[in-house]
Amino acid sequence: MAQTDWGRIGLFMKQFALMKKNRGFTLIELIVVMVVVVILATVAVPNFTRIIQENRMTADANELITLLNAARSEAVRLGGQVTANLTSEEEGWSGQILVQDEVYRQLVRNTAAVDLDGDHSIAFFADGSVPQDFSIVLSPSLCNGSIRSRVVSVAPTGRVSVTAQDCEQ
């Protein structure tokens, strides 16, 4: 039979007990981690804010495109003229689809972060066309260069498209 070396086992148990007591972080390690977290937050928060503002611009442009496409579709479906009226509001903008001077559909965007470049009235004919090119500019309220404006264009054929451009300060 092999003999057990109790001295070695005792030494191992003492070392294990010391390791168990020293679990945790030092104050220096905690401070270093906090400094890294603060640096990452100062970089991430402005980018996150920019992403939110870009998403608002995209959402408003998509709402405007939907409204114009609905007006065009109604003109083709009804076989007559349908008008889309867009109005710049104090905070945001609104749009209406008028069929024979009656409101068919209404949209109100209360987004203080997005401005419409004025009031517009676009008439769609029975074939879905419009009398001339139209361009509507959606701009961020605070134009700081990092967020781009959206230009919603309506071609004479009635096709609606959107492009991004640098905003004018």
TrEMBL record:
Q: Which InterPro entries match?
A: N_methyl_site (IPR012902), Pilin-like (IPR045584), T2SS_GspH (IPR022346)
Where is it chiefly localized?
Answer: membrane
Q: Which residues belong to any copy of the General secretion pathway GspH domain?
A: 61-158
Keywords (A to Z) from UniProt = Cell inner membrane, Cell membrane, Membrane, Methylation, Transmembrane, Transmembrane helix
Q: How does it sit in the membrane?
A: Single-pass membrane protein
The membrane-spanning stretches of this chain are 24-45
Q: Which GO terms describe its biological process?
A: protein secretion by the type II secretion system
Cellular component, GO annotation: plasma membrane; type II protein secretion system complex
Concerning Pfam families, the annotation shows: GspH (PF12019), N_methyl (PF07963)
The places in or outside the cell where this protein is found are: Cell inner membrane
Q: Which SUPFAM superfamilies match?
A: Pili subunits
Q: Which PROSITE patterns match?
A: PROKAR_NTER_METHYL (PS00409)
Family, as annotated: Belongs to the GSP H family.
- What protein does this entry describe? Type II secretion system protein H
